[in-house]
Amino acid sequence: GMITLTALLAIYSISMVTSLPGLAISPILGDLKNIFKNASDLELQMLESLPSFIIVPFILLAGRLSLKINKKRILIIGLSIFFGCSVIYPFSNSLWLLLVVSALLGVGAGMIIPFSTGLIADNFTKRYRTRQLGIASSITNITLVLATFLAGVLANINWHYAFLVYCLSGISLLFAFKLNSAPPATPQRAKPTNDIPISTNHNWPVALMFLYYFITFIVLTVPFNLSIYMETLKFKDPDISGTYISVFFLAMTIPGLFINNIIGWLRSYTNVYSSAAIALGFVLFLVKGGPVLLTIGVILIGLGYGCMQPIIYDKTSTSTAESHVTFALALVMAMNYMAIITYPFILEILQGIFSTDASYFPFLFSTILTGIFAVFTYFKRNTST
Q1: Which tens digits make up the pLDDT trace of 193-202?
Q2: What's the whole-model pTM score?
Q3: Which of the chain's termini has less CB crowding within 10 Å, N or C?
Q4: If we measure between CA atoms, which residue out of 21, 28, 57, 56 comes closest to residue 44?
């Protein structure tokens, strides 16, 4: 079948919005401590984490609603809420209002996120779908880098301006009205095939959900712990950790642009090499080398994760009945935010048990887990997941 350029740009713009929640808060947390002097650390941290907490249930709700309600309508409602929050944010001068708007932003984002991949699954099949899922993943990751940088620049002018990055959702909202109310029917999807068993209609993709949670949990070690790691090793400029994290996110964008070529070269070993790259990247952290080894390490971890992410989306869409694809993808994508929410708590518990160095332990723990996982992936390379 055919898809218009406008509709394709609409789908791409949704992928751009999914990386935005919480971005504007990071560069202004220090300013907010001075502005709201009576606020507790928990209240300030909630500004950053609240959207992620709210996103998870609304991703699941939007995925469920997609089984019965027009997807375009759900998407427009979600984008309208998100854009409305982006307009209110810059005029918010009280902490309670910022918290309320952050919660609403999570509602809107949760209603949008499933469709960044769900609409691709509706409109593309086979290698075309794989390629588009790779591009969508790359757009999400590159937006994360650019929007973080932009939020930091705007925050230096005025802390209110950092919230203007959320106004990018207005572009997606305009494009959303150009989407078809129903995806075009194609010969490949017009009738069921033997590749999709009837039993998948109501089964959750549990194995893929766990896989996505696991690899996301592992790679979160880089953005969550890199600055502490660099301060402990007495780098000349520990503030450069932000640059390394940007390199990490940039490395995540590259595989998505060439995902079909990568699968063509590596075939059933794709996930094996990807997990091995992540493991090797963490090993380079353990040797406590200089900036060169550290750069190679973050690049390897980013490349490995950036390769596995679109493949998981693609496998989810191919192993689920057509009518349930968006719901299945919603379940899988929710795991990304579950990992973000649970990572600090699980790591704190483990560090308490082992009573070890808080700067070094996360990288040692991730190295061991990923090394075991790479071996496991090798022996399980021909299984469906």
Answers
A1: 444 443 444 5
A2: 0.85
A3: N
A4: 28
Distance CA 302, CA 219 (A): 8
DSSP 109-135: HHHHHHHHHHHHHHH--HHHHHHHHHH
Cβ atoms of 118 and 290 within 8 Å: the answer is no
| Spatial CA neighbour of 63 closest among 15, 115, 11, 106 | 115
Angle between helix 41-65 and helix 325-354 axes, rounded to 10 deg? 150
Residue with tokens 């660099």: 230
Rounded Cα distance between 137 and 142, Å, is 9
Least confident of 137-151, 224-238, 299-313: 224-238
d(CA 180, CA 122): 11
Residue pair 63/332 in contact (Cβ under 8 Å)? The answer is no
Distance CA 159, CA 156 (A): 7
Closest CA to 222 of 163, 281, 269: 281
Alpha-carbon separation of residue 42 from 46, 49, 50, 92, 226 (angstroms): 6, 10, 11, 19, 22
CB 205 within 8 A of CB 328: yes
Contact predicate 154/162, CB 8 Å: yes
